[in-house]
Specification:
single chain; about 120 residues; mainly alpha; Arc Repressor Mutant, subunit A; 2 domains; 5 helices
């Protein structure tokens, strides 16, 4: 697992860990039921506290990306592709609502927003 912690990030370390593992799961870098590194091993690899990695794993489990089996470890949960798509759509909608609010404040038209999106996509 290739997790990079950025000290310059505004996100707390546990959130950086959680987001990178979540993204790897979503992108299919892990198979369903694949064993993840133990909390202690990951903490040692990343040189962070066990509490930090535990918090990241707890949030991943709460969100349904992983499940834990006492004495065996944490495993990637089988993902429902339609559910994953719906979660991503909700996040996109929230981000677009923010963009629309800013665009209104800056008096940017819909056409200009589409142009910005086209530029960012390239």
């Amino acid at each position: 697992m290739n997790i990079r912690i950025k000290n310059s990030s505004n996100d707390p370390i546990y959130l950086q860990i959680k987001n990178q593992i979540r993204d790897a799961i979503i992108n299919g870098e892990f198979e369903a039921e694949e064993l993840l590194p133990s909390i202690r091993v990951l903490a040692k690899e990343l040189r962070v506290s066990v509490i930090t990695t535990k918090r990241a794993y707890d949030e991943l489990e709460r969100e349904g990306y992983i499940h834990s089996v006492q004495g065996k470890g944490s495993f990637v949960a089988a993902q429902n592709k339609e559910l994953m798509r719906e979660k991503m759509l909700k996040k996109i909608e929230a981000s677009l609502l923010d963009a629309l609010r800013y665009a209104k404040l800056a008096e940017i038209s819909k056409e200009e927003l589409v142009q910005i999106l086209d530029i960012l996509e390239d």
